[in-house]
Structure prediction request, 191 residues.
Amino acid sequence: MNFTQFIGSFKTGDASWEESPVLFERIHIAKNIIKGIYSNKRTIKAPEYLTDFGLRKTDSPRIFIKEYCKKLDKQMPSVLEVKKELLELDIRDLGDWIDGVVLVLGDYDSSYEVLKERMADVLKEFTVDNLIKMATLCGIENDASTALKLFNQAHTKCTDRETKEVILHRIDVTLLKREKILMSFLNIVIA
Prediction:
């Protein structure tokens, strides 16, 4: 079972899953992503895990969906099938789909692997917002060099001053948390 089939198994009008406001919102966001309807409007019930400034991987989306699948007697999608589906997507849709896969399944690792396999096209085709999210994903996966490459590409493409400042801040966070640049600097200054 792939991501599309899994999300399609949540039928409208089925109170067994619609009673959970968190599950309801996440599934509807994923349904919209599958239909090609992308929106950045989310509530706390469906956080954007790929915008975490701290570059933290969380297990909560994975635990959440596993527990609901047990309760609803649903099978989780296969990691291999989800990865295959992501590899076959139109590159312009990939960023939003990865965002949906992380939101619903908490599958950072497969999403990162697909991103790496499609990197040449990602650098050419992704929007600034999706470049930022994918750079954050790379930072979460401890791949600072790719994160920095994506943040720099986003900065180059960006025309909005505030967004450029956000990107520069994220570059600093990546250098600090993944490259330990500040710690090296402090050790030199203190010594």
